[in-house]
Design a protein that fits this description.
The complex is a heterodimer of chains A (313) and B (164). Chain A has helices at 15-25, 57-60, 63-74, 91-99, 183-198, 268-272, 276-282, and strands at 5-6, 12-13, 45-55, 78-84, 106-110, 122-128, 132-134, 140-141, 154-160, 170-177, 207-212, 229-231, 247-252, 259-265, 288-292. By secondary structure, chain A is an alpha+beta fold.
């Protein structure tokens, strides 16, 4: 029987995931020597979202910041990134090289520059190729013909590599950063985005919308139009100042029965022993994550001892 | 808490490196940077990309500007640099009814035809001002018939918010 441990900021987790989180909360200086890729649980993949505020040349030039960012990414199987802001196309490739400096094997896909003004942002997914692969033909931007979204979401379809292909968990990720001045309108539009992605392929029922929503669950009324909607993060601040819940992972039950009920907010201050001022140099957002079973779950639900029981919200 | 006034002084200096660092520090100040709303809006027209991007990021997070900033933001809403005009317009909209005196400037931005993003944000801002922006009804009615679906929608929403 699995032993359950409380995560630092999240739900009860099976022992493998809890061990990962206990590592996460142990203070270590940002300059600590890297010692090779950390082991990841065999019975779960960890999908994260991280708004790396103004992720551009000036942030990439700060070695200590890059080291913290790299250590964040290495904890997860996939990280949906928001706020890549640079004219250079080398920001994310350079960063992935830093992530892989310890022997990790991460890769990335990145979207086009988006935004209504000359100040543009890009979305990106960074993923561990040892455990995850992407369908290159699935990478794109959600159409927004009515121009309802400041930065239309980027989508990509992923598959786990932990299990044989015929058992692998496949899923859409839809990366979003809403406009803070038009949150209700954009959340309303995201309902259509979500349902459009659910219908995009007859062989894919798993859609995970994740990112910086600039809103928390009390403002998710529009999402109730999605049958079985659920979200990972609730009741815990996700910004670095620990005052707002802005970031989340949204999915639907029973389709995404692979959600294990484990989630968390990786608090930059406590995880890396950073004072607030230094944590804010990394980002004004903390990463958020959810745990998913790495094999497709059909019909009878999760196999025994495959994680904490899911909770409907 | 950072010295906001010192950062504002640096933000208007000659050294682009120092200006970028000041803009980044103001961004990290969060809502405390509201006192620098007007200088940050001007910084959106800086020649250095880093300054512009940090200024934009700061403005996204700082919430409504101080009430006393409305008068200074009104001329910036008509600035020739579209990013300056966009953010001045946004801050006026965040000011809500307190920015009623900006109605004429926002109506001009709505109809100037210089930048679609500024026009759309002007429609949004007039809706945020609400009944105090009644003088902009004719401009909003024209915009509500625009072929651009977003501009037309925002204009209709603004007219509903203004009422009457």
């Amino acid at each position: 029987m699995d032993v359950l441990f409380p995560s630092r900021r999240g739900r009860l987790l099976p022992i493998g995931l809890a061990a990962l989180c206990l590592v996460a909360v142990a203070p270590r200086p940002a300059s600590a020597q890297t010692v090779g890729p950390a082991p990841k649980p065999a019975d779960a993949i960890l999908v994260a979202s991280f708004n790396i505020q103004v992720f551009g040349e000036s942030k990439l030039a700060k070695q200590q910041v890059v080291e913290v960012l790299a250590r964040v990414v290495r904890r997860f199987d996939i990280v949906a990134i928001q706020e890549v802001r640079a004219k250079s196309d080398e920001i994310v490739p350079s960063f992935v090289r830093a992530v892989n400096a310890d022997g990790s094997r991460y890769s990335h896909v990145i979207g086009p520059r988006q935004g209504r003004t000359v100040s543009k942002e890009q979305y990106a997914f960074i993923y561990d190729t040892n455990r995850i692969e992407v369908d290159p033909s699935s990478v794109g931007v959600v159409p927004d013909p009515q121009n309802k979204l400041h930065r239309p979401p980027m989508h990509a379809r992923f598959r786990t590599r932990i299990n044989p292909v015929e058992m692998a968990f496949t899923f859409w990720l839809v990366d979003i950063h809403t406009d803070p001045d038009e949150v209700p309108q954009e959340l309303d539009a995201l309902v259509g985005v979500f349902q459009g992605m659910q219908a995009a392929r007859p062989d894919e029922d798993d859609v995970i919308l994740l990112g910086d929503l600039n809103a928390g669950p009390p403002e998710f009324k529009a999402f109730q139009r999605i049958p079985g909607v659920a979200w990972a993060v609730s009741g815990v601040p996700t910004n670095t100042r620990r005052s707002k819940t802005y970031d989340n992972l949204v999915f639907a039950r029973p389709a995404t029965a692979e959600y294990l009920g484990g989630w968390g907010v990786l608090d930059l201050q406590s995880t890396f022993g950073l004072p607030l001022e230094h944590a804010l140099e990394v980002s004004d957002h903390n990463p958020v994550w959810g745990a998913f079973y790495p094999a497709e779950v059909r019909g009878q639900g999760l196999p025994p001892m495959a994680g904490a029981p899911p909770v409907r919200r | 808490m950072p010295d906001i006034q010192a950062l504002v002084a640096t933000l208007s200096g000659h050294d682009p490196e120092a200006r970028a660092e000041a803009a980044e520090a103001l961004c990290r100040a969060g809502t405390d940077a509201a006192a620098a709303a007007v200088p940050l809006t001007r910084a959106c027209g800086d020649g250095d990309e880093r300054v512009r991007e940090w200024a934009v990021a700061a403005l996204e997070e700082l919430g409504p500007p101080p009430a006393g900033d409305v008068a200074a933001l009104i001329p910036l809403a008509g600035d020739g640099h579209p990013l300056v005009a966009y953010w001045a317009t946004t801050l006026l909209g965040r000011s809500g009814g307190a920015a009623a005196e900006a109605t004429a400037a926002l109506a001009a931005g709505l109809e100037s035809g210089r930048d679609p993003a500024v026009a759309e944000r002007a429609a949004w801002a007039l809706g945020k001002i609400g009944p105090g922006a009644a003088a902009a009804r004719p401009a909003l009615e024209r915009a509500a018939a625009a072929p651009d679906p977003r501009l037309a929608r925002l204009a209709r929403e603004a007219l509903a918010a203004i009422g009457g």
